[in-house]
Every structure is written in C-alpha cells, then in structure tokens.
Queue: 2 jobs
Job 1
Amino acid sequence: MAPATASNEPIRVLITGAAGQIAYSLIPLIAKGEVFGQKQEIILHLLDIQPMLGVLNGVAMEISDCAFPLLRDVVATADVAAAFKGISYAFLVGAMPRREGMERKDLLKANVRIFKDQGGALDQFAKKDVKVLVVGNPANTNALICSKYAPSIPKENITAMTRLDQNRATAQVAQHVQARIQDVRKVIIWGNHSNTQFPDARFVEVQKDGSWTSISKVQHDEKWLKESLIPLVQKRGAEVIAARKLSSAMSAAQAAADHMRNWFNGTEKDQWVNMAVVSKGEYGIPEGLVFSFPVTVENGQWKIVPNLAIDDFSKEKLKITTTELEEERTEAHAACE
Ligand code: NAX
C-alpha cells in the first residue's frame, strides 16, 4: 500500500512527554524509520515541562549520539508554540502516569486540562492535516477534549491508543492456540482504554498450513475467550505496574509506533487494527465519543469495519464501556470549564 505522504521533504513529528519513559522507547523507533519508513526524513519536536528540561537535554544528547541517518533536526523545548509549529504528526504522550493503586478517574481531572491546552496549540500552530495519536491517559477522553479545543483540525485526525490492548490480546491468543503472532488476526478492542474495554476474539482468524480459519474451528474454547482473555487484557496494565513499579513503557511505545505506522502506510488486505476514533453513531455508540473500533486504513483514512454481529454478551460489554466514556466526558467538560 502506498504511503499517505509521498513527499521527500522532512516531516515534523512531535512527541510530548519527551523526557518520560514511553518517549525514551518511542524516539528510536521513529528515528530509525520504523513508523514513517526508511526513506522519510524527520525533524523531531520534543516537548516536556520546564522542570524536565535538564532530562530532556540529556535525551537530546543521546539522540545525537545515536547518529540516526533519517533524523534531520531535533527541537527539544518546553515552549508549546515551538513544539507544535508546523507539525504533521503528533504523539501526545505527556501526562501524569498512573501509579500503583491509583484509579484512572483520579487522573482525569489533572490530565484533561493538559489536553485542552494542547488542543488549542494544535489549532493554532500545527498543519491543518496533522494526524494525532493521544497516548496519555485517560486517552480516549483526552482525545475528545483535544479535538473540542482544536476546531480547525478534522475530528477524524485526532485518535487515541488502544493498540497496546490489541497487541496484548493478540499475543495471549497466539500463545493459547500455539500460533505465531503473525498467524493471528482480527482481534478487536471495543471502547475505552481502561478496564471496561471489551477485548473481543469472536472474529479472530488463525493461519494454519497457509490458510486462515476461524478461531472457533482451531480451538473451540469459548470459556477461555470470555472468562480468561477478557479480564487478562483488561487488567494487564495494572499487572505490569505491580511487577515493574512503573507503567508499561516499552510495549506502549511499540504500540504507538504500530498505530501510526498503520495510519501512515495503510493496513494489509484482511488486516484489522484498533484505533479509538470519533464515533458517528456506528454500532449504536453515541456520536462524538472517542471509542475504540476495529478499522482498516487506506490513503491515510481509517474506516470502521462495518456489519459485525453484536450478540447479547457483546451488547452488554459495549454498554459498560460506553457508560464509562459518557461519564468521563461529563467530568472532563466540567474540569475544563
Ligand atoms: P512518565 O511520567 O515517564 O513521562 C511523562 C512525561 O510527561 C514526564 O516527563 C512529564 O514531565 C511529561 N509531562 C507532563 N505534563 C506535560 C505537559 N503538559 N506537556 C508536556 N509534557 C508533560 O510517563 P510515561 O510512562 O511515559 O506515560 C505517559 C502517559 O502514557 C501516562 O498518561 C500513562 O498513563 C499513559 N499510558 C497510556 C497507555 C495507552 O495504551 N494509551 C499505555 C501506557 C501508559 O500507561
């Protein structure tokens, strides 16, 4: 599939929270061409807050020491205007991370205001066709707020990350059916990047002996898919925090790179990826919520996979995560007033 941007001009790519741990793993993936390809030169814009400038300068030194051939320049700054100026792609990672025992809702108030300000900065300084991935939590609702305060940027261009949940679920399914990762496709993550998300393996296909078959034919284990896989993926972030004493970073960076690479390059035939995108009412999800759906991507445009059957079990799961997102939206609007 042809890349959405064929230009050989360097593109400006912003990473916020650039002194943080996800950025530390994400920067080399972008600078090595694993997102925008091996021919696309890049000018990296790195934003963090003033007290972190010392650390950010250390990161900038390391970037220089990597001598990345694709990297034309680095702008490391605490100045929001300089960071957002002329950018074509943004990874909005910077936020307060969830610590052990902390619920996502505690984070909401502190974090949505950051995304209100950054929405304003996108509106004012970014290219009008900028493509945005929100990683900082609560990611879906931060994206919704960001979009509200960036009225000149198309709503379709502001997305949030559930690719980590997709990758987690795919790895678990692959392990369960004893297949390679690349032999598992069509895992769905519906809803919020939180423990109300619905990891849905009903449409999963597994490749065996060169042909793709429904998971139900390969391994008829509905009990595992419903009772083990769903809570495992929902709680994986908390499990990593408990073990590492820090939230997921390497896997989050990989997922952010995967999300943007598929948005930039498109998806393969029969490949679905999950992105939290603005709802236009698909699958009965209220219009305007930023909700994770399975999508395909062509020419830089995502399209929600249509006509998937929603049974009673799935309906109930979709309702739970929708209700949480509606509550978050109400709280977020109040916090931004
Ligand atoms: P770190 O605390 O290591 O880094 C965050 C960085 O953001 C810090 O350097 C901080 O100074 C900076 N920052 C804070 N406010 C800022 C602002 N207004 N402008 C620019 N920078 C700002 O956190 P890290 O582990 O990198 O996690 C970053 C975010 O990703 C957190 O919100 C975390 O909850 C979220 N995550 C989202 C995931 C997803 O799948 N959507 C998974 C991983 C991760 O938990």
Job 2
Amino acid sequence: MPNHIFIKKKIKNFNKKITVSSDKSISIRSVLLASQAVGTSEISNLLESEDVMNALNIIKKLGINFTKKGKIYKIQGFGINGFNYKKNITIDAGNSGTLARLILGLLIKSKYSIKLKGDKSLSKRDFYRVIRPLKLLGANIESNNNLLPIKILGTDFLRPIEYDEKIGSAQVKSCIILSALNTPGLTIINSKKSRNHTELMLKFLKYPIKVKSTKTNDKIFIKGQEEFNAFKYKIPGDISSAAFFIVLTLLSENSQITIKNINVNKTRIGIITILNKMGAGIVLKNKKLYNGEEIADIFVRSKKNLKGVNCPSTLNSSAIDEFLIIFLAAAKANGTSKFRNLGEMNKKESKRLDLGIKFLKLIGIRVERIENDLKIYGNPEINLSGNFEVKNFLKDHRIFFLSCIAALTLGGNWKINDKNSANTSFPDFLKILKKIGARVN
Ligand code: S3P
C-alpha cells in the first residue's frame, strides 16, 4: 500500500454527526494509572493508536498484564511501583512525548536500570525538562545530552521536592505527580496552567491530591505512598482530533457538523475560544460531568467571514496542539491574526512553528515572524489551483491532518505523504473524512 494520498477536489457541502478518536492524553494516563492501582481496572473506548499501544506494551514489559474482551481493556495492577521486570530491559515510547515523560515518573523507584528509547522524532526532543526534577527527587539518570535514549535507575531514598514548573507543560507536571506517588511526604508543584487530566483522574480515584488555583497557576500538593483501587473509565473523544473537523466545517460551504462526546475540559478548549473570537459561533451542547471531566457535543456551521484574531498568549497552553489548524483558519480570515510566544510548538513531534509557517507560505499566505511571535495576513478569497506536495515533516500526524483539511477547503491538486502518521493519534481520520464526502485517493 502506498504511503501517500491525493486530494484533487474540495469537499462538497455536508450535514453530519460524527464521533472522532478517543482522547490520547486521557487514554495514556488511564493505562499508566491502571498499572499502579490495586486490582483489575476496566477501560472502555481506549484510543487504539500507536502512542497508546506503546503505553500498553511498556506496562506489559514492566510486568503488568492486560487483556482485551470486546471493547474493554482489563489491566491488572499490583499497587504503586508494583512492577516486576528483568534486568537490562529497554522500553520504547515510539513517537509519544507524553508516554516517555510520564513513564519516567513511574520509574523513580526502579530497582534495576531501565533504558527508554523512542523514534526519530522523539529522539530529537528535549528531556532536560523532566530529567531536572527527577534528579532533584533522587533518581539516577544517564542521557545522551538530555535526549533519548535515557537510562533511569531509581532510588529507595526519595525526597519530596517543591518544584516550579514554568513552561506550562502538562507532561512535566504529570511526570512529577506520578513520581510523587512513590515519594514519602508531600510533593508540591507550582505549575503554570496546563491540561489537568492527571490531577482530575487522581481525584476521581480518591488519591490525596489538592490543587489551589489562581488565574495563571496551579499549586499542587500530593501526598506520597497511598494506594488506590482499580477503576472503570470510559474515555471521551479528543478535542485535538475534533479540531480538524471543526475547521473543515468552518471553511467549507453550507455545511454543518456535530462532533459527539468530546472532552471539553477548560484546559483544552483554547481552539474554541480562539475560533469564536474570530466569529466562528461554535456551540457546546449536552454538557455533562464525567469523573471530574467535562464532556459535550460540539456543533459547528460553515462561516464565510471569519475575522483575524489577536490571540492572547494565556490561551497558548490550552490550544498547544491545535495551532497548526488555527493558522489555517487565520489564513482564510479577513484581516491580520497575531499569535505570541509560540516557541513550545517547535518542541513537539516536529518543529511545528517552523513547518506551520512554511505551510502557510506554500499556500501563498503572507506571514511575518519575530522570534516566536507571528502575524498571519488572512486572505478570505484564497482559492488554490496547481500542484502541491507535502513531504519531509518528520511524519508529524498533525501536519498530515492539516494538509488534508487545506486541500479539501482551499482547492488545488495535492499529494500528501506519510499517510501512516495518522496512526499516532487518529487511525480512522481518513475513513471519517470519506464518510462525510471527501474524495481521497
Ligand atoms: C500532553 C501535553 C502537551 C501536548 C501533548 C499531550 C499531555 O504537551 O502537546 O500532545 O497529554 O500531557 P506539553 O505538556 O509538553 O505542552
């Protein structure tokens, strides 16, 4: 099977209800926390993508068994640090920064040294951000200049720390929270706001964790070495996957879509706030609470005259994985859009800020960049013709999805490479696109 696709026609008008893939952040957390619970947890609607399968493979290598019956994964935990593994093992996080950083937190007490590796993209990403706090807690870590592969050897002499997490990274925050499960006493994290699924899941498990919030920061207190029981969890849909269908609908003509059962946690819906500032009129329907998380259906209609946005950087963390597709909306908006302080985008699966700008230039949009601030000069009349090819994007799934949505809404003859990158987060992406009428070869 070839690993590229062709799109040569814009999508025709549609009116559909869809579900998208399950939330990746919550799927990975549910697997890792089930591996630390006492008893057999049952997880339904788990995202069956490569990142999550790598999480299951890693816990298996660490001695935690799981089975799948029907749609339910059963994971048998033996409590905190209840791992059981051989000497000299290597675990592989594949493409997933979240998995790599979170699993290191759970290995803080490992009795043998464990090697962690990842794919080409993950091997270029910074691990100093987690190595620093883990060393302060007492772990022994060897790395390749703060890159993977990393060897971690735990310690029995863990000490609780008070840590300032200034990046606004949920991966760093969650790595410390998970290591605190093994650490005696009270670990305190002063963290710039970021997605809070780990905290909410631990609260749902009745684990002693407290959070004091201000507008910009969360101060988190975790008491170590308390056990928690196995649990049942049904994973909701992922707003990061829904994002592509939201913008597809906005930029298409006379269309509407309902995306069902999406996690709309406030720390994740920056894209909706930003697009609504542009006049998108996106509505959240049927809101309900589920184990501390908020879930809703997202209703979107085509919008002819989106306007440029002056995006406050306080929204960056809650839209961090969605900026590529937000840039596409800005490209078709009336007026200039401004974004600030987007350096973290270059620390993702690919250098997304650099590649996002390259992409906008490819489709003829004027962009000005000063350091990590961006001005996008929108063109509401944009209508592409001629040939476009997207390649060499480090197989970043979100650049693949962005390219498909651009091709389906702006026109032109597109060849888009590395189709298999979709398997990282959203294996059914093309199937759902076709279901709503896209012609993809
Ligand atoms: C994630 C956190 C984000 C995000 C990533 C998933 C998580 O990274 O980009 O795709 O599940 O914790 P940072 O927390 O490093 O910004």
